[in-house]
């Protein structure tokens, strides 16, 4: 990476880091903007994923050679290794049913939307990320109730709403993905007559907007919510990040994933479905506590993913420019 590219990357990361803080300031100073930001967040996230999908050769990605290996590794990590990690960390959570439900919900549900964008930022394989989203959705629909019951009990399981996961996944992921695939098939490589550089810049600015909207609509919920549980729960979330990162690196090396899908695994294990499980928490008996705990995780995850996107190539080094191209070759 040239010095110029490195400086540009640092500028982008700075903008990403400042966006949620600026959004938080707006939400606190102008409370009337919170509802507006909340209504704009979902369509803007869908637009961000649409632009991300446009940059990926979706119509020619079905024969990537390491896809099966990645799927098996990701399923093993997401639905066995991480739940065991969460089970251990749950011992550190204060004995509050609302808190334990929130921690289980947010840490057991893998992200099915914006981890694709962060996979691109980390020089991971966006193609593999896109192909893995149905597995992640189906896996959490099947396994999330099981692990919630085992770790948090039957009372917590009653708050789980699988239909909400399906609706959000269809609107935020499947719809943009389908439109992008149709456009690519009608005009292969056209990207709506935009150059790759233009699409890249649009995607980066949309990510800034999404992060700002999160700051306004979600993070302001933490203001005035300082309680004795915040520090222990924040420690649990950070412990999860350390554990998930270690698991991703170990599994990627153990199964000999190429660098790009390895980085995608790294991002996927750290990205959680906080957007989707937040309404589930709001419907629970301890809505205020549970929702604040999930928003706290969302805040920490934002900065974690930004940091991981910068250091992913150091944790899983390899040829950054040719990795995705090699994925099209026979292993």
Write a short abstract of this structure.
It is a multi-pass membrane protein. Keywords: Cell membrane, Membrane, Transmembrane, Transmembrane helix, Transport. With 331 residues, the chain is mainly alpha-helical.
Characterization of the model:
The protein has 331 residues and is mainly α. The protein has one domain: Na+/H+ antiporter like fold. It contains 14 helices and no strands. α2 (33-54) packs across α8 (162-186) and α2 (33-54) packs antiparallel against α9. The chain is globular.
The quaternary structure here is single chain
CATH architecture: Up-down Bundle
Portion in beta strands: under 5%
Q: State the end-to-end CA separation.
A: 26 Å
Low-confidence stretches: 321-331
Radius of gyration, Cα only, in angstroms? 19 Å
> Any idea of the CATH class?
Mainly Alpha
Number of helices: 14
What would the CATH topology be? Na+/H+ antiporter like fold
The tally of domains stands at 1
Shape: globular
Membrane topology: Multi-pass membrane protein
Keywords: Cell membrane, Membrane, Transmembrane, Transmembrane helix, Transport
Main location: membrane
GO molecular function: antimonite transmembrane transporter activity; antiporter activity; arsenite transmembrane transporter activity
């Amino acid at each position: 990476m040239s010095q110029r590219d490195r400086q540009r990357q640092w500028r982008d990361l700075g903008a990403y880091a400042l966006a949620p803080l600026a959004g938080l300031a707006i939400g606190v100073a102008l409370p009337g903007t919170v509802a507006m930001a909340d209504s704009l967040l979902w369509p803007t996230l869908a637009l961000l994923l649409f632009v991300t999908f446009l940059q990926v050769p979706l119509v020619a990605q079905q024969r990537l050679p390491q896809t099966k290996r990645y799927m098996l590794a990701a399923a093993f990590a997401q639905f066995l290794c991480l739940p065991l990690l969460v089970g251990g960390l749950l011992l550190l959570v204060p004995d509050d049913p609302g808190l334990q439900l929130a921690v289980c919900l947010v840490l057991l549900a893998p992200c099915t939307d914006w981890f694709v964008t962060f996979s691109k930022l980390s020089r991971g394989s966006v193609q593999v990320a896109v192909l893995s989203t149905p597995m992640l959705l189906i896996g959490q629909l099947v396994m999330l109730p099981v692990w919630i019951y085992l770790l948090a009990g039957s009372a917590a399981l009653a708050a789980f709403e699988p239909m909400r996961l399906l609706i959000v996944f269809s609107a935020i992921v499947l719809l943009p993905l389908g439109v992008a695939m149709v456009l690519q098939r009608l005009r292969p490589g056209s990207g709506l007559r935009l150059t790759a550089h233009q699409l890249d810049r649009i995607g980066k600015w949309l990510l800034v907007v999404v992060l700002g909207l999160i700051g306004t609509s979600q993070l302001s919920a933490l203001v005035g919510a300082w309680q004795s549980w915040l520090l222990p729960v924040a420690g649990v979330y950070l412990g999860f990040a350390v554990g998930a990162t270690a698991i991703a690196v170990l599994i990627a090396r153990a199964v000999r994933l190429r660098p790009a899908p390895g980085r995608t695994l790294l991002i996927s294990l750290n990205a959680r479905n906080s957007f989707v499980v937040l309404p589930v928490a709001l419907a629970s008996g301890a809505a205020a506590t549970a929702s604040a705990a999930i928003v706290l995780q969302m805040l920490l995850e934002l900065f974690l993913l930004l940091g991981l996107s910068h250091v992913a190539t150091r944790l899983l080094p390899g040829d950054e420019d040719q990795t995705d191209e090699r994925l099209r070759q026979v292993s």
